Amino acid sequence: MIKLFRKIRYDLMEKNKTGKYLKYAIGEIVLVVLGILIALSINN
Hints:
By secondary structure, this protein is an all-alpha fold. The chain is built from two helices and no strands. The radius of gyration is 13 Å and the shape is elongated.
């Protein structure tokens, strides 16, 4: 899974598509935050 994200990130940077890269980065951050929140709710 990490290799897939890394490949997408490198492809977007190679093609110099900054707008799409920023959307991808924000989406990845949101996924991480949601994962942390779900883990905390399960822990309680």
